[in-house]
Design brief:
Blueprint lengths: L1 H36 L3 H15 L1
Helix pairs in contact: 1-2
Length: about 55
Amino acid sequence: MLSAMYQTILCLTRWFQISALHNMKKRLQTFLRNIIQKPYELQKLENLLFMSTLMF
């Protein structure tokens, strides 16, 4: 019983990590597109990258 709960929690954690990475990838792609048009987006990108290094 306990191990089944543990497995479920592991699966959920994994799924959240994957979806978070996917969202970050999508966000990075839009930032990179915007950087070409607006240089100040670079600052936002730097902040995002800094925050993501703190999380891992």
